Amino acid sequence: EAAVTQSPRNKVTVTGGNVTLSCRQTNSHNYMYWYRQDTGHGLRLIHYSYGAGNLQIGDVPDGYKATRTTQEDFFLLLELASPSQTSLYFCASSGSKNTLYFGAGTRLSVL
Amino acid sequence: QQKVQQSPESLTVSEGAMASLNCTFSDGTSNNFRWYRQHSAKGLEVLVSIFSDGEKEEGRFTAHLNRANLHVSLHIREPQPSDSAVYLCAVSSSNNRIFFGDGTQLVVKP
């Protein structure tokens, strides 16, 4: 069955720490997305990509880098984590019809 | 930039009673509309997609779209306690950008 798998599921780091969130999809989709979800803000788009090597800036990109190494793999990098980046992070993929298929989420705490 | 607003913020209904959720959007060129459900900070699952004015039914879930009024709604027939979740409206245009509302928290009481 097609799936979007995120790792880790939970992560705790300290302010200034370096964090990488991983996402792999087996949907053969071109588009992949990173969202963060916070109470009162809903889902906000950080970065997205429409293929290996491509990166597009979302609505809340500050403090985040992303890299799409293959069609399957999309990474989100926090190089100097801050407490404001404590959040629930979702990865998703979509094909041509814009239906998003989400991973189970990564809960990140920055102390 | 597209603005997507959902109402109400929270809704409590009794098991078996119809639940109706609303979503308004600001970009009249939007052509892709979906409703997603999210149980307790878990991943989202798509319930129904609609692309033209009118209604689209998927099991107990029916979406109504009126693009002239910039409005899309979701109606849940015979809701059950297991339908208690956050419901999110997603709107996109031809540029593949997808915008979400903040969600409606639905509670279905037995």
Précis, in short:
The complex is a heterodimer of chains A (111) and B (110). Helix content of chain A is 0%, strand content 52%.
Textual characterization of the structure:
The complex is a heterodimer of chains A (111) and B (110). Helix content of chain A is 0%, strand content 52%. Chain A has 111 residues and is mostly beta strands. The radius of gyration of chain A is 13 Å and the shape is globular. In chain A, strands 2, 4, 5, 6, 9, 10 and 11 form a seven-stranded mixed β-sheet that branches. The N and C termini of chain A lie far apart (37 Å). Chain A is built from no helices and eleven strands. In chain A, strand 9 (87-94) and strand 10 (101-102) form a beta hairpin. Chain B has 110 residues and is mainly β. Chain B starts with a strand and ends with a strand. The model of chain B has no long low-confidence stretch (mean pLDDT 93). In chain B, strands 2, 4, 5, 9, 10 and 11 form a six-stranded mixed β-sheet that branches. A five-stranded antiparallel β-sheet of chain B has the order 1-3-8-7-6, with no helix packed on it. The chains are: A mainly beta (111), B mainly beta (110). Chain A binds chain B through residues 4, 31, 33, 37, 40-43, 45, 50, 59, 88, 90, 92, 94, 97-105, 107, and chain B through 1, 32, 34, 36, 41-46, 49, 88, 90, 92, 96-98, 100-103.
